């Protein structure tokens, strides 16, 4: 059995911050896990270094479920994004090790491929509707079959999901949180126009998605869902905050637009009521923030009972290690829906060489043993950590609002 002899945390910032856990076994096998929690990176790094790594040394790396339970139940303080991201990193690294020892890609250990490849969606954004459509057409021509549309809101200086001119969209900015201003009224006027223009320009053979980023009340979300129905969106995401899971019942009463939620969820308990009551269609919890492959499979198994499908978060703050794990999970899980794909910059891809690939609107994790991702430590060391925050959002009268 492979005994864990060392584990260390590697922090690197090739354009944005990533925290990676590397576990080493006595036979020389190593495994990687993503531990990145955007805007709170060093909290997880310290949780791992101070509290988790000492408990790993000497354990049998093959006992993935036992180690998961040990870190979850054994901590006494259950759940929460920091704890669950740390557990996720250990879990991913252990699956990576098991795959390398078996000589198999992780998806084979999870039951094998349940589909040929994973449908992914990309982002198209622009300050105007015309810019957004232009980008969407470009992505469609690159082969994407599903595209998330976000555009600037007339009358607001900046809007969630829209890049600053000439740059890629990247939410983690400033040395302190930047502030943006929000108006629900203005926003609710522009989104149906965006979707009408998109259907006109792109036709009906491409899936269109939209992220509301928690900014509406349930009844406003119902209005948006209803207004978008003629354009048949694939989903609207995070249309209202989900702390009160029953809020989604109100949205459901008003629209048949499919609902996705859960990128900020960190355990099955965040999603239980939503899934059991069929209040959502897609669950967006990820391998990195929801306890790793082991726990996400449990969430997916519950969701499958209620015809809820997966639609995992995949923004650039999920490192290539998490992306690979998401694809092994997605390829093998019966109720896969779609996977978000926001390509990393070249520096990130160089720090984390990987086997996964994009073809014809879909992605495949590749067939390298384990997760199929490595880390170039020299390159990683060349990109020093730099504190970065997610922005905050206020209403026009200054009230702090959901971001
Ligand atoms: C998405 C997300 C991201 C998040 C970011 C936070 O749907 O891709 O909403 O844009 O805001 O990942 O860390
Ligand atoms: Mg989102």
TrEMBL record:
Domain Mandelate racemase/muconate lactonizing enzyme C-terminal: 130-258
GO molecular function, one term: mannonate dehydratase activity
Cofactors (names): Mg(2+)
Main function: Catalyzes the dehydration of D-mannonate. Has no detectable activity with a panel of 70 other acid sugars (in vitro).
Reaction catalyzed: D-mannonate = 2-dehydro-3-deoxy-D-gluconate + H2O
InterPro entries assigned to the protein according to its UniProt record, in alphabetical order: D-mannonate_dehydratase-like, DgoD-like, Enolase-like_C_sf, Enolase-like_N, Enolase_C-like, MAND, Mandel_Rmase/mucon_lact_enz_CS, Mandelate_racemase_C
Record protein name field: mannonate dehydratase
Entries under Gene3D superfamilies matching the protein: Enolase-like C-terminal domain, Enolase-like, N-terminal domain
Family, as annotated: Belongs to the mandelate racemase/muconate lactonizing enzyme family. GalD subfamily.
Highest taxon, organism lineage: Bacteria
Keyword field contains Cytoplasm: no
Pathway: Carbohydrate metabolism; pentose and glucuronate interconversion
Keywords, ordered alphabetically: Carbohydrate metabolism, Lyase, Magnesium, Metal-binding
EC code: 4.2.1.8
